[in-house]
């Protein structure tokens, strides 16, 4: 079986690179088009950029649904393939497809009920900012079915080691978005100038193109996982996906709630501070693509080898992952420290934005470096089907440790304390992550030697 040769026998250092490079490239393309979105919108006005920055937590809620479903599907399918249970693979896939439609309906309901009240609260009474944000997020949420399809069918390609095909689907989505962005935002070739609504329309069109291509590639090129749609799904498979997926969704949900909380605090300083935070989130996504791509590649590697009982390969995977993460993020950190002003100028930054933004970029770049440790820990926990640990770690980083520092910064009126709080929270959460990893080692990795025997042959 091809999957065995990829996940079970390929040397680990090469396997991580093989799995991660296409994912990194695809994330690079994806984040570049998100960055381009913001750059084009910043040319409309700073209010427009602030509007989509305020909309970001609602986008995170959509990501929470899709990412939770995708991670749960990825872990369960990879584990079933490692255990040589094709029927489990088929039924898990069918359940995930139905769940994707359910996630889309949740997006629609949230959009209809909450978008207007949310912007009335977060925009601080600024109707121009609210109008820009509402016109953007409504389209993203009401037409998010393409995004949900992408989450499911892309993860099926990743689970079988076909990361190059995943690159094709995400690359298609990104290309369509980048082409349509200036046309729909500024009104070229006879199209009306739609502003932020045009950016949203370009995004959902690209997502639909990527989702449809994902369906096609899975049917034609991913024979290890039969795509079978049926409404008669078993609760067992829904529960298995949710077991891993819900903690992941909660982690993303925490990010959404914290985004709202942070925007509220920053608005006390200025709307420019909110726009800077929106830029920083785009920069973070771009800065961490190497580690995030490796994260996505690690989950099926760990899940497969856990299902196959290959303890040594799991240990080597984890060691290599941390080494690669340190190398990648050191290069990123140095780069960001050298060019903060040039990053801000991409967004047509005003003098005030440059003055406030340069120290913010420099401080937050340290946070990006430190947080890479938590990203690798999360991949390890999810690969073992233990999404709860990822949730606990995220809650420690983003709530218990971060909120008190943000409140102190707001109370004393010092925005530097707020940016520094991200670094402190990430650093203080590392010992907690190490403790959770120790529990995984004790309860899941160590017993494998007894279950599968010490004398089995493993290919490193």
TrEMBL record:
Pfam families: MatE. It is a multi-pass membrane protein. It is found in: Cell membrane. The keyword Plastid does not apply. The chain crosses the membrane at residues 49-73, 94-115, 135-153, 165-191, 197-217, 237-254, 320-339, 359-380, 392-412, 418-438. Its main location: membrane. Coiled coil: none annotated. InterPro entries: MATE_fam, MATE_MdtK, MdtK-like. Keywords: Antiport, Cell membrane, Ion transport, Membrane, Transmembrane, Transmembrane helix, Transport. GO terms for cellular component: plasma membrane. One of its GO terms (molecular function) is xenobiotic transmembrane transporter activity. GO terms for biological process: monoatomic ion transport. It comes from the Bacteria. Belongs to the multi antimicrobial extrusion (MATE) (TC 2.A.66.1) family. Multidrug efflux pump. This is Probable multidrug resistance protein NorM. It comes from Enterocloster bolteae.
